[in-house]
């Protein structure tokens, strides 16, 4: 391991709001501070920073510049996803789904499985999902307009992404409330009070639910996505039921939380930037560019991570085989080398080469669907809403991975 030299700058205290002492492995650092001052300093002075080990916790690299983050995403041959792609998981020894679930898999298996799963996102499959997304988004927004105070998380964002994935997987409406409840519990370890055992139990419930669905679809195949994957061969072999269940779950994991917090983030950003809401509402800026700016502004997945398979150079740093490398989308998406006035929320920003959906071989599989859901919500807001009043400062999700708010009290008029 060769450090980029500034490890001494790095401490464990969170008192310094300028960001000099943020511990990126600690969710508290992200909730207690606005880390943008930290990213600015890092991009300028130490863009690939080594975070030394703390006790038994391994050290890791943090990459801050847009160009370096993008290059790392492309370099799947030397930067592996198979041990895990989230810092917390890597620091705890790696992902048990490594090599079995699309997001945490390397070539050649990744390329084959991705081809199979991409069929789930073909125009034929997405055609009927798209119509349902637009209808659902419009009904959810309409129910809140003029209804006084509401929590946009509970009343709008909770319902759209999970139902969209369930439409894609053709899961019956009667199963969905249970899936939503499990999914919330599965992610509850991301709050400071969350119980990790309860979260694990909920994850197991979801996996065993999908194992049953997979068995059923193998017996009676249909035209749906699960039947499609269940029938496919990867590296010449049919997939096991456990691996199929994992990959169904990965669509919920990938599709639910990120889209949910981005929807909440969109309402928050538009409600707190009146002039931008005006530009969008009057058609001066398009929904298409607003969706991209919301994705950049929120950057719900603040980082993704890789493990170096060989010694390599990233920017000024010499990284050793086996090192954990974290790619900070949140920093890349605010890099002034790429974005003019990055801390300005600008619904007309174009071009907008943000990395909120990743880049390269693991680029978000659900990008089309995520964008579709966000445009459906914005379209409906533009048609039905004049004023967005945010009534309270919303609580932040407790995480160093996911950026977002767990509730948003507002009034739509
Ligand atoms: C991958 C973000 C919506 C499924 C990714 C990655 C990012 C991302 C950054 C790259 C991960 C990496 O490189 O390791 C987002 C955001 C979304 C969103 C911000 C919404 C606003 C969705 C939806 C689905 C989905 C709706 C599915 C229905 C996936 C899957 C992968 C992925 C399966 C793994 C792809 C692979 O490894 O080849 N997403 N995502 N995502 N996303 Fe999304």
Automatic annotation (TrEMBL):
InterPro entries: Cyt_P450, Cyt_P450_B, Cyt_P450_sf
Presence of the UniProt keyword Transmembrane helix in the record: no
Pfam families assigned to the protein according to its UniProt record, in alphabetical order: p450
UniProt entry tagged with the keyword Heme: yes
Keyword field: Heme, Iron, Metal-binding, Monooxygenase, Oxidoreductase
GO MF annotations in UniProt: cholest-4-en-3-one 26-monooxygenase activity; heme binding; iron ion binding; steroid hydroxylase activity
GO biological process: cholesterol catabolic process
Signal sequence region: none
PANTHER family tied to this protein: BIOTIN BIOSYNTHESIS CYTOCHROME P450, P450, PUTATIVE (EUROFUNG)-RELATED
Similarity remark: Belongs to the cytochrome P450 family.
Record protein name field: Cytochrome P450
Gene source species: Streptomyces alkaliterrae
